[in-house]
Amino acid sequence: MKIAVLADIHANYPALLEVAEHLQGWGPDLVFVAGDTVNRGPRPAECLRLVQEKVRNEGWKVIRGNHEDYVIVHSQDDAPREGPLFDLFYYSYWTYEKLGCDTTDLEGLPEEFSQTVANDGEFRGVHASMRGNRRGIYPEMADSTLKKLIAPPPAVLAVGHTHRPLVRKIDETLVVNAGSVGLPFDGNHRAAYAQIQSSNGDWTAKIIRLPYDIAQTKQDYVETGFVDDAGPLARLIRLELEHSLSQLYQWMNRYMDLVLAGEISVAAAADEYLQNPLIKPYW
C-alpha cells in the first residue's frame, strides 16, 4: 500500500501543481490531504478546484483544517464585520470573498479520515492531532507528550498543521507529520509531502521535498491583490513564504492581547513588527 499525504497547501497553487505532478510519477494507491487547502495564501479558489477535481477523478481523500474553519466563520450570521477581531482575521475574509462567499464545500469536509489496510492495521489522518485541529505535533516534543496527542493509537497517524515535518515511531504507531506543501516553517523553501508504505504489517515513511516556481507564488501575492487587499497581516504571510518560518505566531505572541484590548491597531502592530521581525527559528 502506497499512501501520499499532503497538508497545508495554503492556497499556493504553483507548489500544489508541482506536488500533484510528482505524485503521477510515484503512483500512490491513496492520496490524503490533511487540511488547510485554502487561506493564508493567494490562490484559494484555484487550489480548492484542483483538489476537488482530484477527489472526483482520482479518489483523493480530503479533510478540513483550522484554516477552513476560519473561512467558514465568515458565513455565520453573527460573524463580525468590523473591530479588532475582524481585522485580525481579515485575510480569511479575503479568502471567503475569493471563494464567492460560499463555504458549502468547506463545511462538507470531514475532520478525520480512517482506512484499515488488510494485515497492516489502521491508517488514520487528522489535521493537527487527536486532541483537535489546532493542537499540533512538533519535532521537539517528547514521546510522552506525543502519546497523548495520538491516542487512541492507530498503526499510522498522519497529520500536518505545524508546517514542520516529522517521522517517528511511538510504540506501535508510526507518526507522520507531512510538513507543508505551500508554506513550510522549517527554513526549507521546498514543498513537502509524505510518502508512506506498508507491507506485511511494516509501515515506513519519508518526507519528499520538491523545488517549485516560488517566484510565481510571490507574483501571485501581488497579482491577486492579496498583499494589498487581504489586510495588514498579509504582509507577514508573505514574509513567512520568503523565509519559510512562521511570523503570525511570533506576531500574535507580541501583540494579540494589546490588539484585543484596543491599545494598538492591527495595522500599527503589523508595521511595528515588520521593523524588527523574528527571522529565525523560535524552537
Please, could you describe this protein's structure?
It contains twelve helices and ten strands. It is an alpha/beta fold and 283 residues long. Strand 5, helix 7 (143-150) and strand 6 (156-159) form a beta-alpha-beta unit. The chain is globular, with a radius of gyration of 18 Å. The relative contact order is 0.16.
Task: Write the topology of this structure.
Elements: E1 2-6, H1 13-26, E2 30-33, H2 44-58, E3 61-62, H3 66-73, H4 84-88, H5 90-98, H6 104-107, E4 112-117, E5 121-126, H7 143-150, E6 156-159, E7 166-170, E8 173-177, E9 191-199, E10 202-210, H8 214-223, H9 226-229, H10 234-243, H11 248-260, H12 266-275
Parallel strand pairs: 1-2, 2-3, 5-6, 6-8
Antiparallel strand pairs: 1-9, 4-5, 7-8, 9-10
Helix pairs in contact: 3-5
Question: In a few lines, what is going on in this structure?
Answer:
This protein has 283 residues and is an alpha/beta fold. The chain has twelve helices and ten strands. The mean pLDDT is 96.
Strand adjacency order, main sheet: 3-2-1-9-10
Q: List the domain count as a whole number.
A: 2
Regarding quaternary structure, how should these chains be classified? single chain
CATH overall fold name of the largest domain: Purple Acid Phosphatase, chain A, domain 2
Name given to the CATH architecture of the largest domain: 4-Layer Sandwich
Strand content: 15-25%
What order do the helices and strands follow?
A: EHEHEHHHHEEHEEEEEHHHHH
Proportion in helices: 25-40%
Largest sheet data: 5 strands, mixed
Number of helices: 12
Dominant shape: globular
Low-confidence blocks of residues = none
- Rg estimate, integer Å: 18 Å
Overall pLDDT score: 96
Q: How many beta-strand elements?
A: 10
N- and C-termini, Cα separation:
35 Å
Structural class: alpha/beta
CATH superfamily of the largest domain: Metallo-dependent phosphatases
CATH class assignment of the largest domain: Alpha Beta
